[in-house]
């Protein structure tokens, strides 16, 4: 970048004052300031773009390293499972051969099915259940159904006695 000291800036200002004149100098200085600001913003945008591209490359490198590590782990797990399954099959075949050779003796193992697993009773999920039991509501007189005022009055009105006699 160009290095401007105080003496160089003062010399440029004096030459500009003489060449441009005192009337146009403020407008020219303002225009130069706007141009310098635009140039700085452009340089900052370019730097940001370069930094983003560098970060993107680093992220891609990290992604590829992570994928290779995941593949390595997957392969090692797959190999361990394969070796464990072959070992289990080998042990199982040896045990089966040992049982077949001793199947005629009285100490044969009973291969009955395991007992059934407990399963909780199925609930009626579509039935709405309240938190308070119905019998408790009935005992304490809690209303369970909405009624209009007239229906409530008619429900609790004393029954009619057939003839009313007033003497």
TrEMBL record:
Per the record, membrane topology reads: Single-pass membrane protein
In what ranges is there compositional bias, type Basic residues?
121-142
Q: Where is this region: Disordered?
A: 97-167
A Pfam entry, by short name:
TatA_B_E
- What UniProt keywords apply to this chain's record, in alphabetical order? Cell inner membrane, Cell membrane, Membrane, Protein transport, Translocation, Transmembrane, Transmembrane helix, Transport
- Cellular localisation: Cell membrane; Membrane
Source organism superkingdom? Bacteria
InterPro entries associated with the record? TatA/B/E, TatB
Keyword Cell inner membrane, does the record have it? yes
PANTHER family (alphabetical): SEC-INDEPENDENT PROTEIN TRANSLOCASE PROTEIN TATA, CHLOROPLASTIC (PTHR33162)
Concerning its family, UniProt says:
Belongs to the TatB family.
Known role: Part of the twin-arginine translocation (Tat) system that transports large folded proteins containing a characteristic twin-arginine motif in their signal peptide across membranes. Together with TatC, TatB is part of a receptor directly interacting with Tat signal peptides. TatB may form an oligomeric binding site that transiently accommodates folded Tat precursor proteins before their translocation.
Assembly and partners are described as: The Tat system comprises two distinct complexes: a TatABC complex, containing multiple copies of TatA, TatB and TatC subunits, and a separate TatA complex, containing only TatA subunits. Substrates initially bind to the TatABC complex, which probably triggers association of the separate TatA complex to form the active translocon.
Instruction: Please give the name of this protein.
Output: Sec-independent protein translocase protein TatB
Species source reads Ideonella azotifigens
Q: Name the gene behind this protein.
A: tatB
């Amino acid at each position: 970048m160009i290095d401007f000291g105080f003496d160089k800036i003062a010399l440029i200002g004096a030459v500009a004052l003489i060449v441009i004149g005192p009337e146009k100098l403020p407008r020219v200085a303002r225009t130069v300031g706007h141009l310098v600001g635009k140039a700085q913003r452009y340089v900052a945008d370019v730097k940001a773009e370069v930094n983003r591209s560098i970060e993107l490359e680093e992220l891609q490198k990290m992604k590829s390293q992570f994928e290779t590590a995941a593949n390595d782990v997957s392969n090692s797990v797959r190999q361990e499972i394969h070796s464990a399954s072959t070992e289990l099959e080998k042990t199982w075949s040896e045990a089966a051969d040992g049982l077949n050779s001793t199947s005629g003796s009285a100490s044969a193992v009973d291969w009955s099915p395991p007992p059934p697993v407990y399963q909780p009773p199925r609930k009626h999920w579509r039935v709405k259940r309240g938190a308070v039991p119905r019998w408790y509501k009935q005992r304490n007189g809690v209303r369970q159904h909405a009624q209009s005022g007239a229906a409530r009055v008619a429900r609790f009105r004393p029954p009619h006695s057939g003839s009313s006699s007033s003497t």
